[in-house]
What we know:
Layout: H1 2-10, E1 15-20, H2 26-38, E2 41-46, H3 56-61, H4 66-74, E3 81-84, H5 88-92, H6 111-114, H7 118-133, E4 137-141, H8 145-157, E5 163-167, H9 187-192, H10 195-207, H11 212-224, E6 229-238, E7 254-262, E8 265-273
Helix pairs in contact: 7-8, 10-11
Amino acid sequence: xxHHIDEIKANGKSVGFVPTMGALHNGHLSLVNKGLDQNDIVxxxxxxxxxxxxxxxxxxxxxxxxDADVTLLKTVSDTTIIVYAPTVEDIxxxxxxxxxxxxxxxxxxxxxxxxxxxxxxxxxxxKRLLExxxxxxAYFGEKDFQQLQIIKKLVELHHIPVKIIGCAIHRAEDGLAxxxxxxxxxxxxxxIAPFIxxxxxxxxxxxxxxxxxxxxxxxxxxxxxxxxxxxxxxIIADTTTLKPVKRKSxxxxxxxxxxxxxxDIRLIDNIALN
Length: 274
């Protein structure tokens, strides 16, 4: 893979990169199209990374649809997209362990607090893939906003020569953030799941006049009234430090983050606050 990329770059072509865990959907395609707008070639990696799952059952059940993923990518382009689908052994050899990373505290907030070792796994695989693919630009969706900020910090701390591009959340018509996990939702849970985004929008409106504490309490009450969805957390945080806000400041920007269980499927979402 690295040799092939070297040949492409030797011909003066630029390389974009979209790392995925497969089960591709229109959200992934939006990242690929962004990459194709800015580069001659886009590499799409498809790899279900075992070290970022704190729940082994979730790892086993994670959808693996490589043939369908390749077919979907061909609808975008069959000449300017390279699919890189390594095995676990290709990436880890016989030692399936993550490296230990520090991201100046970003890793301890939200997802880091609820998913032990998750961002060590993310850092390990993204660093490895960036070293293999050596892209000029790499594209990540803002649905995983905390992950996006951590990858920017990874690149900065390890002096990796790539520009990280954050891309807007791609949503279904009813507002549900596109995710590979959506395919595992029951019909009942899929129908109620847009409640998450509606609640985020209402929280955004309330944040204009209410304190972060008041908004958080209001959101928690809304989910208690919705028995089909179990709120794991709702946090309003500083977009730079990802630390929960105690008192609003006009000099800072904020985002609301949420994690919700729809049955046994865990969904996350976020929204920029005014």
